[in-house]
Amino acid sequence: MRDTPSRRVLFQVGAVVLALLVTTVVLIAAKAPPLAAFANIVQGAFGSWDVTSNVLVAWVPLLLVTSGLLLTFTVGLWNIGIEGQIILGGIFATWALRVYGSSGMSPTVVLILAFVAGMVGGSLWAMLAGALKTFGGVNEIFGGLGLNFVATALNIWLIFGPWKRPGVASMSGTLPFDQRLWMPTVTPQSMLSVPTVIIAVAAIAIVYLMIQGTYFGLRLKAVGKNAKAAYILGIPTWQHMMASFALCGLFAGVAGAVQVTAVYHRLIPSISSGYGYLGLMVAMLINYKAAFAAPVALFFAALNVGSIQLPIVLRLDSSLAGVLQGTLVLFVLLGHGVRQRVLKKPQVVS
Amino acid sequence: MLVELRDIDKTFGKVRANAAISLRIPPASIQGVLGENGAGKSTLMKILSGFYTPDSGEILLDGKAVQIHSPADAIRHGIGMLHQDPLDFPPMKILDDFILGRQGGLFPNHRAASREFRELAGQFGFALDPEAYVDSLTVGERQQLEILRLLWLGARVLIFDEPTTGISLPQKVKLFDTLKKLAAEGMTILFVSHKLEDVESLCTSAAVLRQGELVGAAEPPFDTRLLVEMMFGKELPLAPKKTAVPGGKILSVKSVSIEGVRLQIRGVDLDVRSGEVIGLAGMEGSGQSLFLGACAGLTQPVGGSFCLDEDERDMTGRSHLEFKKRGVAYLPAARLEQGLVPGLTLTEHFVLSEGLGGLFVDRKKAEALAKERISTFNIKGTPESVVEALSGGNQQRALLALMRPRLTLILVEHPTRGLDIESTIYIWSKLKERCEQGTAIVFISSDLDEILQYSDRVLVFFAGQVSPPLRAESLSVERLGALIGGKDWENLPKEAVNA
Ligand SMILES: Nc1ncnc2c1ncn2[C@@H]1O[C@H](COP(=O)(O)OP(=O)(O)OP(=O)(O)O)[C@@H](O)[C@H]1O
Ligand SMILES: [Mg+2]
């Protein structure tokens, strides 16, 4: 069999069907009605404008993080430290709001400062992972994992120490900011903020253009595919790795700032909400192709939000979404491997 | 074993790599396979050894039709292949590599395997230590190991795809002895090569492919002119040797010492002048690659200095990128590991190597650039071809086509490795054109004829020892062959021409 685009689609669809099957089996094993569960998820994600707007709220940080990760994947790096970079973005944004919030500047300026601070925070944390790799020879996966723990600890320390609520520190985070410093939302009760949606869409568009059309993107690709040859072709290798770390951290930092300014309006212990790891899954699922990032991220966000109701309605754990997401990624990767074995791909010729 | 190929067909996209090829190879013979780059030689060999399945056609072994679906299948039928570029060897012990691929048994019997290895190696006079590590072997020794392994697995048919590119004369002599011995024992051998003299001295018959078709066959005594005509459809005159008039200083190497993994180079002095061609001769792994890499700033010397240009700018300790900025190009031998980026297209390669500025890639300009280079260097491929889909010779052309227009110094390993005769002549004419514009060239080759034909001066390397520069006219192939084998070094310094 030959490898054609239509066969490729066939394999993707097959993977999705298999993932649904496995999840169904899991549901039956848990003595739950599978159809009702799936229907509930759809209902929970798109049943009303309220829940759909919540899907978009989850979509924004997920898309931001995925955009950043596409750059590090392009240059051949596994930026596991993305979680920590989101956290640092949140911390820096909170810091900016605390410092400038009561300075009398207009709220818009303060919010912009908070976003810039978030970018700087995420970027610095990512460059730390990059420096560990380039100058310390620490694999970015291990370095990133370590830095994630440090970031979490730092966050908890701030919430329970210097930035604790007056009186008693609490797991529910720092004291909420003044309402003036909240990102404008579509309705007062909603967490959906249109400017953040615009930022996220702009982010993925920029990344798409960068990889598809710019010299920088082409150089990243070359380094990712063969660093040694890229260097001999005249591309400064480690500088490009560093740059992609910095950019990825920047996007993660924005995600952190969004969480702080638009969603929670304070710094909370789980500020990254696992979007970093989820973003890694999205990036793998779309085989690192920026064009598919937005819809797949939306799908993942819908699964997350849609399964929130499961415990109440069906007495199921909401981690069902995670099961579905995980099996989906596994089957798509598996489908990829099988495709390469079954369909004859031109091999290296001599 | 009698091998018969009947009406073998193989198409890649629009390219018909093999078109109705039929070939009959009796046991105890050495079949030469000739043809220009991209003629379909490797494809045919890969079909026989199970890497590709033919679109149609039959393979018969001793008269029985067989289906070969994988290399493991092939070896089960007694067919083994040595590849054009020796595959990447992991840092394993020789014995472990040797045992690898043998079926059956959970725990390999090391003692028995070791004994059999020694016996087999002894038969052919190979001096391989089963306890040594594979990555310490030269290309020639890796071939020996691979031959032993295939024989041990029961191969009765051995396929060699350009086995002499990259090995030096003494190693080649040894390889040919082995092949003749194997044929005498009844093995069937297929031997793909671009070197007519190799085919002439070794093969019992020769087949010529052109554009996927079998266009001719010949028996010894071979007529060289006829073979060339069959391969290219015309005669090929060799350009007369031109010696350059050296100009200003380009590179000064001053008592440079380099430490490699397995050898050290001490106190090399060399001045390269504009328009000059310097050949570096030596057996694979004698230090010439190390030296060339150091001239490009890829390895840092432990002593001495490198200076560039007339003004003797000291470049010692600078990175390769800084050498590159001053017009130094480095073309490595490991094409797909160091020179090209698998997965990227030809256009993308040219765009990258030109180092164009600006934010967005100008697609039109990029495509025009690619088209121009592809036609200048005669690459069989399109701007959108990914480099790994090119034939070996075309990958080499792509590598050469990556050189920027204005260069002061070209450092190149095996510039014509895997190129057919016509392309070899053509590529050297391109390189010599550069020399006329004032570029200097330092190149490594394992082909002594190439060294003598194209260089003005020669440095000989032997186990890290480096001769003073010798004038190419003062050398003969025999003399150079002795020198790279470590003989005759006593008389050297006297006749050395001072740089
Ligand atoms: N996997 C592949 N995908 C696409 N085209 C291929 C593939 N393998 C070979 N070809 C094409 O088939 C033709 C024959 O290639 P092949 O490698 O057999 O040539 P060759 O005679 O070995 O050449 P060389 O002397 O350069 O090694 C070439 O035009 C090549 O581009
Ligand atoms: Mg070939």
Give your account of this protein's structure:
The complex is a heterodimer of chains A (about 350) and B (about 500). Mean pLDDT of chain A is about 90; it is low at about 345-350. The two termini of chain A are about 20 Å apart. Helix content of chain A is about 70%, strand content about 0%. In chain A, α3 (about 50-75) runs parallel beside α7 (about 195-215) and α4 (about 80-100) runs antiparallel to α5. Chain A has a domain at about 60-295. Chain A has 14 helices and no strands. With about 500 residues, chain B is α/β, with parallel strands linked by helices. Chain B folds into 3 domains: about 5-230, P-loop containing nucleotide triphosphate hydrolases (Rossmann fold, 3-Layer(aba) Sandwich), CATH 3.40.50.300; about 240-325 and about 405-499, P-loop containing nucleotide triphosphate hydrolases (Rossmann fold); about 340-405, no CATH class. Classes of the chains: A mainly alpha (about 350), B alpha/beta (about 500). Chains A and B meet through α8 and α9 of A and α10, α11 and α12 of B. The complex binds adenosine-5'-triphosphate and magnesium ion. Adenosine-5'-triphosphate sits at the interface of chains B and A.
